[in-house]
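Below: protein 1.
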Amino acid sequence: MASTPTTGADDAGSEPFVHLHTHTEYSLLDGASRIADLVGTAKRLGQPALAITDHGALYGAVKFYTSAKAAGIKPIIGCEMYMAPRSRHDKEGRTDRDPNHLILLARNETGYRNLIQLVSKSHLEGYYYKPRIDKELMAEHAEGLICLSACIGGELPQALLAGDMDAAEGVARQHMEIFGTDGYFLEIMDHGIAEEEAIRGGLLEIARRTGLPLVATNDAHYIGVDDAEAHDILLCIQTQARRDDERRFRFAGPHFSVTSGAEMRDRFAQYGDAVRNTLAVADLCDLELKLGGNLLPTYSPIPPGETPASYLRELCEVGLRERYGDGITTEARERLAMELDVIETTGFAPYFLIVWDLIRAARADGVVVGPGRGSSAGSLVAYVLHITNICPLRYGLIFERFLNRERVEMPDIDIDFDDRRRDRVLQYVQKKYGEDHVAQIITFGTMAARAAIRDVGRVLNVPLP
């Protein structure tokens, strides 16, 4: 049984433990661990590595990676995938509504790229109530991944619960074939759940039959046991249930926290190397993400003999005459020269060409484009390229708020398109640069104070007044 995690490091001199099955706030309305708190707790407990395995998505992967690196902890990026009972393309009634679970962890960059492919295709091809993959897709993108058999919701544990040892062994051998003998681990848990107790003997038997190693995990959905009540209320909000409803979905007790290594060693003492194998899995994972660079597509066509920077200068000279005619001032020329110098030095000439081309194409297609807003309105280059329609010189707007040498960050040009024809702009970009190079961004809604009070009050049957 779980207890409140210790506030200090694990026992001095003892072997470390690594959490390989954790959920953050990006397991939406299911995980109650903020990434900073999760990483901070692992560091306090002296754990050398930590995995993130949110449900069906990688929303928090980069934030988790940078937080763990800053704390001196090895980040392991993974996902708890949903496995379609049949094919990911089958979407019929209850037969395909209840997928199994499976944990996938990226060993390296190849594995991370494959994980991204699996998550993307689970949403684009397999979505049916939840984003799902199947074994065909998994085998296609298995390189560089480690697989854990998951909680009692996994296919193998479900076979054990059904009393079918041969089917469970068959699942294990399928996964061994896909991921290799060193890439598949039998996940063993103890949250005080009767079903977990019922299958632990079966997991030992599968390990004996196949030679597969056991790995001990705790399905962490919150930081400490004191957070169990708040997490329970969060689940009620997700399922639109009231807390006093005996039939609602709930977790079995306050055991889904970030446990210490000492506690895990005590809990799984009779299961051989199950705790030690968490470190073995962590040692197999060595992912280095290349962050901070700019992966801009190549703008074309650029006239022969030109570079993006020289072509941008030519376009700006033409635009300067279009904007000011015979009234070009020394101030305008000096400002344009300064901005172009900064843009060339920081390497963002291709970006301006891409945005210029996009807006030019939109206007040619009859799409209404806004006049510009935000810091980009302070750029004379943007004005003479007709990206914005506000003269920064007339209104005393400052270019350095938009881009400067001291703080080199990707320029952010906010563009407003007519909602009724916005899809035409997307089609143009997809055709020019390829659909696989175009994505729409998302934002995450958070529960502000008023919404939180309203929803928690509903769960607890407390009237809003």
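Below: protein 2.
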Amino acid sequence: MKPWFFLLCMAVLPAAAAPRLVALGGDVTEIVYALGSGEQLVGRDSTSQRPAAAIKLPDVGYLRQLNSEGILSLQPTLVLANGQAQPSQVLQQVEKVGVKVVTVPASPQLSVIALKVNTIAQALGKTAQAQPLLARLSRQVTELGQPAPTGHKALYIMANQGRQSLVAGKDTAADVVLRSAGLVNVMGQVAHYQQMSQEGIIAAAPDLVIIDRQALQQMGGTTQLWTLPGLSLTPAGKAQRVITIDQMALLGFGIDTPQAILTLRHDVAESYAHKP
């Protein structure tokens, strides 16, 4: 960072000025709005797409490719950063000029969502406003804690426009979601996200495919889905069984994730009830 930029950002805001927040992480931004502090946001990262009001805010860049100049140009008094925000040196530079940085837990676990809410609520002085939200999350997580394992073998496809489709293995947010919904991840024996291979997909033999609805549309619909390597030769392909989801809500492990998993569980039950 240029020395002159440090000096510029050292300017002290008036004591009476309202807090100026920058949120880094879609889960963080959603919680800020849910706690009634959306009007204090002056910036967000590119993964913060919800609610719709967030898109109108200045974008400081992708969560894992941040730069201090972009953040400090907005003269924030508080930066709320998802724990996956990178590079870490950027946040250290922001702190050096006197801006408070609060790191929000990022582990893809249902139990961590309430911790995220509590962390942000304490930073904003909104612990009272957080109670109804925490109560709702507690009810949903309790309901998810008692899934009846279905034994259905699911394949989660991460399809990105212009890139090769990936499948979700273990140690991924998708794997946690599948297990929370009572499903078996057919790629659970491999780590992280892997490129699709015809041999691997056929051997895994999923009877259900799960994919983001927007990604499926960009792909060209279900007709194009079954042309992916080996997929048409699986039980899922032969039965044409696919469930579309909101990937951001489901994998973000924010305040919408528990309900998104409950919805997935319901959709799975409906799919098998109507298509043996």
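The first helix runs from residue 3 to 9.
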